[in-house]
Design brief:
Oligomer: single chain
Radius of gyration: 24 Å
Helix content: 10-25%
CATH topology of the largest domain: Rossmann fold
Shape: globular
Structural class: alpha+beta
Strand order of the largest sheet: 2-3-1-4-5-6
Order of helices and strands: EHHHEEHEHEHEHEEEEEEEEEEEEEEEE
CATH class of the largest domain: Alpha Beta
Amino acid sequence: MTSELLRIATAGSVDDGKSTLIGRLLYDTKSILADQLDAVEAASERMGIDYVNLALLTDGLRAEREQGITIDVAHRYFATHRRKIIIADTPGHIQYTRNMVTGASTANLAMVLVDVRHGVVEQSRRHAFIASLLGIPHIVLCVNKMDLVDYSEVAFEEVRQDFKEFAQKLDVPDLCIIPVSALHGDNVVGRSKNMAWYEGPSLLHQLNEVHISSDSNLIDARFAVQYVLRPHSDEFHDYRGYAGTVESGGFRTGEEVMVLPSGFETRISSIDTADGPVTEAVAGEAVSLRLEDDLDVSRGDMICRSGNRPTVSQDVDAMICWMSEQGELRPKNKYAVKHTSRWVRALVDDIKYRLDINTLSRDEESESLGLNEIGRVKLRTTAPLFFDPYQRNRATGSFILVDETTNATVAGGMILREAA
């Protein structure tokens, strides 16, 4: 029975075989249609290669096929007997780091690929660090192209040790390292006879069995109000509910809650869904909450438990990934901030440092952040935000910066704590 949803982000350097590996997963699990396979076979023939290029299953843009690289984030869906799986095939080029950040922002698991012949290179470290920064709890390192080194255990061990040493500097709760050949399918869906020395799981087995049910924050009850449902007919003349998504934790009817920023306390009288009333709502569910008291609640407000409140502050200390080709982030710049369902304006108070994500060193003299650069920034907002540290709660610890002149998203942010 399919129950859990696993979100995966791929990562790694150029030509490490991410698209081919995803194509192999889809092909070997029989998750592609006959006409899709026919199209890929025809495209492979036009390219003059004597095998089916499974990378074409994910590299859908014409520019991607012509150049043999991944540019945009492509999402692919398939299911096993255990799970529904969504894979975000993200680019490996350094100039598309922002695409990788976007694709990985909601992932449970990061699948990092390295070419066994080249080992752990700069972009491998960059993407592993970003996966750690984004709070992805599970990383699977796929040491690919083992067929090109005659399935050498020694070559695999060198890469494994190198990556483990780097991963020790990161916050990686769960790391699994698997030798694979995406081209031939070794250790992708089933165990490979070519690597009898390897005693671990195949990639698909790991994706099926990795424990993700406890990854969500089930403790901190947070509900961001997106829309106020007012009386609109004689039939619902007394209905007043607050629609939104349970960001984390859960709520039950009858329990005492607090509304921020007012701080007023009340109780939940009912929880409604599109399918009717329920007694409980948990993280990820879109519901409407009705409260016992008639309070002033608006879009952007947050409902929580009075004994477990988020931080309420206008000063935010955050890690920022700058995503815009137009301009740089500098002190005194002003932006709009989208945090949960709340919009506020913000001033860049200070850039504490720019991070070199290849060496993990800090440049404390930096006065700006450019495209694909990451740094620690202090923001001052015009109205309070209701947040938790990102490492504790990804839903309430993340935000985006928007240039109000162009309405373009220019950065993604991860809140560390309330700024001093």
